[in-house]
C-alpha cells in the first residue's frame, strides 16, 4: 500500500466551479455600483464616473459572456481560475486608481481574490496572485487620482499614514492568505484521503464479491453441463466398438464431468455450511496478515495467548487490509524485528504490533491518524523521498475503527525502542455480526 494512492487521480473537488467565480463577481459588481452611486449621486462628490462605471460594466459583460459560452457546472483548471481572479484584482485596482488609491476605505477588497485562491487553488497560483495584489497596492500608494471629496476641498493622506496603510494591507493579505490556505488544504487532504479509503475498500469488497459471482455462475452452469453430460453418456451407447466417434463422445463426457467437479468446488467455497471459509480464528488472521511480509529481511514473530476459547471472527476485508497496512508500516521502519501478538479474555481481543525501528516522531505523535502527516523518521534515503505521509496509517485507522476497533499508537518505553500499535475490539463485536465485509463508508 503506497502512501499516495491518488497521485494519478484528478480529483474534482480541487477545481473551482465557474459558477462560483461568476456569482462572486456579480456580488462585486453590485457592491461597486452601489458605492459609486452613493458617492457620486447621493453625496455629490466629483469623480470620473464614466470610466469607473465602464470598469464595472466590463465585469458584468465578462460574466454574461462566460454564462453564455460555458455551462455553469464546469470546473475550471487552476490556470483558468487564476487568470479570472487576476482580472478581478486588476479591475479593482483600476477602480481604486480612479477613487483615491489606498486612501479609499475599500482598498482592502484587493485581498478578496487572493482569499478565494487560497481556499480553492494551489499554493503556487495563490502566491502569484498575492504578488500581483502587492504590486498593485504598491503602485496605488504612489499613483492615483484624488479621493472623491466635496467640491472645493482637497483630501490627501500624510505619507507616513499611506505607508502604514500599505504595510497593513500587505501584512493582512499574507496572514489571511496563509491561514485560509492551511484550513482549506487540511479539508482537501482529508477529502483526498477519504476518497482513497473508499477506493481501497471498494477494491477489497469487489474481490470478496467474486465469491458470490462464482456461486451464481456455478448454479447457472450446472443445468446445461448436466444436460451435456447426460447426452454424451447416452451417445456413448450408440457407437460400436472401435468407432472413432466414440472416443470423441467419451472425451466430451469426461470433460463435462470435470467441469461439474469444478463447479461443485466453487459452490462449496461459498456455502454457508463451510465454516472454515466463512470464519477464521485469530491465529489464522495473524498468519494471513503476516505471510505477505515474510522474506523481506525483517524477522516477524507472532504469538497468541488468552483466557478461554480462541476468538473466531468473519473473514473481514477491512480488518485484514487495516492490520496488513499496520504490519507493512512496521516492517518498513523496523531494523531487524517485528512482533505481532494477540491477547484475549472473555470481553476483549487485542492485537499488538511492535517494531524496533526509530518509533514515532515526538512532534507528530498527537497528529497520528490524520492524513498526509509525516509519521516517523526515515529508515533510508529512498524512504525519505518516497513516502511517510501517513495516508496508509489513516486508511488503516479508518477501516479498523469502522469495524468497532479502538486504536492506540505510541512509542515503546525505554530502554526499548520502536513503535507500538494496539488494536482492540470488544470480543462480542469481533465475533458477532457487527464486523462484516459490507462496511459503508458513509457517515
Question: Can you give a write-up of this model?
Answer:
- This protein folds into three domains: 12-199, no CATH class; 204-274; 278-431, Heat Shock Protein 90.
- It has 13 helices and seven strands.
- The two termini are 24 Å apart.
- It is elongated, with a radius of gyration of 34 Å.
- The longest helix has 78 residues, at 159-236.
- A hairpin with a 3-residue loop joins strand 4 and strand 5.
- Helices cover 57% and strands 10% of the residues.
- The strands form two sheets. The chain has a five-stranded mixed sheet with strand order 2-4-5-7-6. A two-stranded antiparallel ribbon has the order 1-3.
- With 443 residues, the protein is of the alpha+beta class.
- Rg is 34 Å
How many helix segments? 13
Which sequence of SSEs, written as H and E, runs from N to C?
A: HHHHHHHHEHEEHEEHHEEH
- Write out the strand line-up for the largest beta sheet, numbering strands in chain order: 2-4-5-7-6
- The portion of residues forming beta strands comes to 5-15%
Largest sheet: 5 strands, mixed
Number of domains: 3
Question: Spans with pLDDT under 50 lasting ≥5 residues?
Answer: 1-13, 270-276, 377-389, 433-443
Roughly how much helix do the residues carry, as a percent range?
55-70%
Euclidean distance between termini CA atoms: 24 Å
What key attributes describe this structure?
single chain; 443 residues; alpha+beta; Heat Shock Protein 90; 3 domains; five-stranded mixed sheet; two-stranded antiparallel sheet; 13 helices; elongated; disordered N terminus; disordered C terminus
Amino acid at each position: 500500500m503506497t502512501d499516495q494512492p491518488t497521485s494519478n487521480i484528478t480529483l474534482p473537488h480541487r477545481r473551482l466551479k465557474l459558477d462560483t467565480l461568476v456569482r462572486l463577481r456579480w456580488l462585486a459588481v453590485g457592491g461597486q455600483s452601489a458605492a459609486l452611486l452613493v458617492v457620486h449621486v447621493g453625496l455629490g462628490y466629483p469623480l470620473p464616473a464614466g470610466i469607473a462605471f465602464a470598469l464595472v460594466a466590463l465585469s458584468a459583460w465578462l460574466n454574461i459572456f462566460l454564462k453564455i459560452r460555458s455551462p455553469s457546472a464546469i470546473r475550471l483548471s487552476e490556470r483558468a481560475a487564476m487568470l479570472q481572479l487576476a482580472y478581478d484584482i486588476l479591475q479593482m485596482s483600476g477602480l481604486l486608481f480612479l477613487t483615491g488609491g489606498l486612501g479609499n476605505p475599500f482598498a482592502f477588497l484587493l485581498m478578496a481574490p487572493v482569499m478565494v485562491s487560497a481556499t480553492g487553488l494551489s499554493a503556487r497560483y495563490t502566491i502569484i496572485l498575492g504578488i500581483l495584489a502587492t504590486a498593485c497596492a504598491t503602485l496605488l500608494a504612489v499613483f492615483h487620482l484624488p479621493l472623491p471629496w466635496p467640491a472645493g476641498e482637497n483630501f490627501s493622506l500624510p505619507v507616513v499614514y499611506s505607508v502604514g496603510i500599505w504595510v497593513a494591507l500587505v501584512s493582512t493579505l499574507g496572514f489571511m492568505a496563509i491561514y485560509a490556505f492551511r484550513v482549506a488544504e487540511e479539508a482537501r487532504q482529508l477529502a483526498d484521503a477519504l476518497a482513497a479509503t473508499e477506493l481501497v475498500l471498494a477494491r477489497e469488497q469487489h474481490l470478496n464479491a467474486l465469491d458470490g459471482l462464482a456461486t451464481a455462475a456455478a448454479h447457472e452452469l450446472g443445468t446445461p453441463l448436466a444436460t451435456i453430460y447426460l447426452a454424451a453418456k447416452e451417445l456413448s451407447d450408440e457407437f460400436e466398438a472401435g468407432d472413432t466417434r466414440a472416443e470423441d463422445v467419451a472425451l466430451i463426457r469426461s470433460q463435462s464431468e470435470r467441469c461439474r467437479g469444478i463447479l461443485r468446488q466453487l459452490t462449496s467455497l461459498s456455502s454457508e455450511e463451510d465454516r472454515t471459509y466463512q470464519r477464521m480464528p485469530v491465529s489464522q488472521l495473524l498468519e494471513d496478515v503476516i505471510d505477505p511480509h515474510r522474506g523481506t529481511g525483517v524477522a516477524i514473530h507472532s504469538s497468541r495467548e488468552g483466557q478461554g476459547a480462541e476468538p473466531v471472527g468473519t473473514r473481514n476485508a477491512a480488518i485484514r487490509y487495516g492490520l496488513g497496512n499496520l504490519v507493512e508500516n512496521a516492517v518498513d521502519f523496523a531494523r531487524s524485528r517485528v512482533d505481532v501478538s494477540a491477547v484475549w479474555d472473555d470481553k476483549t481481543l487485542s492485537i499488538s504490533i511492535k517494531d524496533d525501528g526509530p518509533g514515532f516522531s515526538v512532534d507528530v505523535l498527537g497528529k497520528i491518524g490524520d492524513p498526509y502527516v509525516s509519521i516517523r523518521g526515515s529508515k533510508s534515503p529512498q524512504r525519505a523521498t518516497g513516502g511517510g505521509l501517513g495516508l496508509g496509517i489513516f486508511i488503516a485507522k479508518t477501516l479498523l475503527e469502522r469495524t468497532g476497533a479502538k486504536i492506540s499508537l505510541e512509542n515503546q518505553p525505554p530502554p526499548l525502542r520502536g513503535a507500538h500499535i494496539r488494536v482492540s475490539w470488544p470480543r462480542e463485536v469481533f465475533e458477532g455480526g457487527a464486523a462484516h465485509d459490507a462496511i459503508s463508508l458513509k457517515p
